[in-house]
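User: Thanks for the earlier help. One more: Probable protein kinase UbiB. Can you show the sequence and predicted structure together?

Assistant: Of course, both are below.
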Amino acid sequence: MSRIGRGAFIVFIVLRYGLDELVLSSFQKPWIRLLARILSVGRDLRSPRAVRLREALERLGPIFVKFGQVLSTRRDLLPLDIAEELAKLQDRVPPFASDIAVATIERAFRKPVDDIFESFERQPVASASIAQVHFATLRSKSGALREVAVKVLRPGMLPVIQKDLSLMRMMAGWVENLSADGKRLKPREVVAEFDKYLNDELDLVREASNAAQLRRNMQGLDLVLIPEMIWDFCQPEVIVMERMHGVPISQVDRLREAGVDIPKLARDGVTLFFTQVFRDGFFHADMHPGNIQVSLAPETFGRYISLDFGIVGTLTEYDKEYLAQNFTAFFRRDYKRVAELHIESGWVPADTRVDELESAIRAVCEPYFDRPLKEISLGMVLMRLFQTSRRFQVEIQPQLVLLQKTLLNIEGLGRQLDPELDLWSTAKPFLEKWMLDQIGPKKLLEQLKDQAPHYAKLLPQLPRLLHEYLKQPQPSEHRQIAQLLAEQRRTNNRLQILLYVGIGFVLSLLALQVWSHMQLY
């Protein structure tokens, strides 16, 4: 009954804001256009279509708001008026009452808000689908005042999200059972993945820990600033963090006037994305313009500022290696290797012909090489790849859904910053270096260092293992002398080989220990 009620509400909102007319009007068949006119009778549809779409998504709740946020970055696929209006969903979702925010803070810390902060701005500075942010000042243990940002969870989120997810699970079941492509698309697993990340967003302590991990990963890169979390004031409903000062990345003209090198900023964004994905396997997966700023402070001029870490993506070593090999093969136009990788990974049936898959992938990707970003669309490439995957029965990998979403976000940002950006040539050197690091001597040394504690435990057992290996039954008196001599020679040879291995093993451990001390000092 709950799902039926929510479904009825969605239909009501669609009709109330005239979204049916928005969809049906694009069809040319007379009976469809007539249906659109009939449904619009008696409704006030004087507001622009983009405004009605944004307001409807806001009324439908956080899942639909997030959908609008993703759409807002695809200005190449949407009419300009709709893209501009949906961009307001990134940080201008209507806020909830400040009294509710204050009550949530006081409940979380069990103190009046004036006892927690030296000052607290009751007017929120930003409001999104999941939470809103207030600026405040906090007195540190040393007595100094510190500017902070206080993020407060929007009340009543969990019931609404659970209703929407329940509907999505039901629809995923229908797709899986009724559609010929249903099982291949794995809709239930995709919804389960979405469920996981949405519920993670509802625990702000998890978001704080995500930010801390990204901050550690990005140290030394000098491309991005991530706010420090103040752990004494982090609870599931409220987190307090360092206040960041920057200009929203969507304000390109203001950044250009301030002297920011916009093409370099676009290239740095590509480097950041590939570093987080392939080096760390831990990436910011909600990189719409509302969550990205640029610092104009002299000491950090031109660096990115990342905000909102409720959704992060993770990749296993196998996922990273597979993706890196695919990207590298794409950049080298080695379509045969791409086809082989799909077969080796089990993403396509084992009996798939390599030459046919290679030809299909070439037809999708070849027209887009050597073009600036303004002349290509990753969204279109992904759509054509999807059509190809349908033909070859490629299984969709749910763990890569967030990566695909983030890649589209990156393309949207890059298109706003520098339409002349050559995405392929910017990313290719990074990936080739990463692949070399994965298979070169540096990687081997790192693996030996990681295994050094295990080897150290085995070292004291080496004499006993050698003794047991060399211990052999005595030959019978009826055996020939030649057999005895041959056995002795074999034993001596084994002993020499094992002694050399043992000596090499000990020397390797000593070298690793020396190298570790050198790294510390």
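User: Great, one quick takeaway?

Assistant: The longest strand covers residues 131-139.
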